[in-house]
Design brief:
There is one protein chain. By secondary structure, the protein is of the alpha+beta class. The termini are far apart. It has helices at residues 2-23, 53-60, 120-128, 162-170, and strands at 28-37, 40-48, 65-76, 83-97, 102-107, 110-117, 129-137, 146-155, 181-186. It has 4 helices and 9 strands; from the N terminus they run H-E-E-H-E-E-E-E-H-E-E-H-E. The strands form 2 sheets. The protein has a 6-stranded antiparallel β-sheet, covered by helices on one side. It has a 3-stranded antiparallel β-sheet with strand order 1-2-7.
Length: 187
């Protein structure tokens, strides 16, 4: 009987995992743009398909969440290993204050800024959009060089309560991790 119970639970959780993985929307980045503004290389982009009903429920129960964004800049070199120039990690943190019915957000790249809104839609937009993020001064790049900007995003598991971290294994439909998105440009 014990063997049957173990097999049943194993089959149940495997089926649950495959069902969630199959029907989960794939998170991704869009509208990725680099530009030169005030002598600086900047990047802007949006994260989409991350707010599943399960993640929304976690947020509205007052659990703080963090979206981690990873931005890299490499110099592309023929017949040699590419040279990493910049490696940036930024966090967007959100917590829903149940008593005040307000969303409180902090973004690590805007240190002194605390954003507060009572609109869930606005909070979601602030969590998923990055506009004019300074990468480095443009004159630090060599002339006639080829470069790649890489961008990736994920729901940070480190700041979640321990019981929710284990839920990632069984329910990937409310956690996310994007692929790396690469932009090539010449200078």
């Amino acid at each position: 009987m014990k063997k049957f119970t173990t097999q049943f639970f194993l089959l149940f959780f495997t089926t649950l995992f495959l069902f969630n993985a199959t029907y989960a929307r794939k998170a991704g980045l869009q509208d990725i743009v680099w530009d030169k503004i005030d002598g600086n290389l900047i990047v802007s982009f949006k994260l989409n398909n991350v707010f599943s009903p399960q993640l929304n429920e976690v947020i509205l129960n007052g659990t703080p969440i963090t979206f981690a964004y990873f931005i890299t800049l490499h110099e592309v070199r023929d017949f040699w290993v590419d040279k990493k120039i910049v490696n940036i990690k930024i966090d967007h943190m959100m917590k829903y204050d149940i008593l005040q019915e307000k969303f409180i957000m902090k973004r690590s790249w805007r240190i002194d800024e605390v954003l507060v809104t009572d609109s869930f839609a606005e909070a979601q937009k602030l969590m998923t959009e990055i506009s004019n993020l300074k990468i480095l001064p443009f004159d630090w790049l060599g002339n006639d060089g080829r470069y790649q900007i890489g961008i990736k995003a994920e729901l940070s598991k480190a700041n979640l309560p321990r019981n929710l971290r284990s839920a990632f294994f069984f329910s990937p439909s409310w956690g996310f991790e994007t692929d790396w998105y690469i932009l090539d440009f010449n200078h």
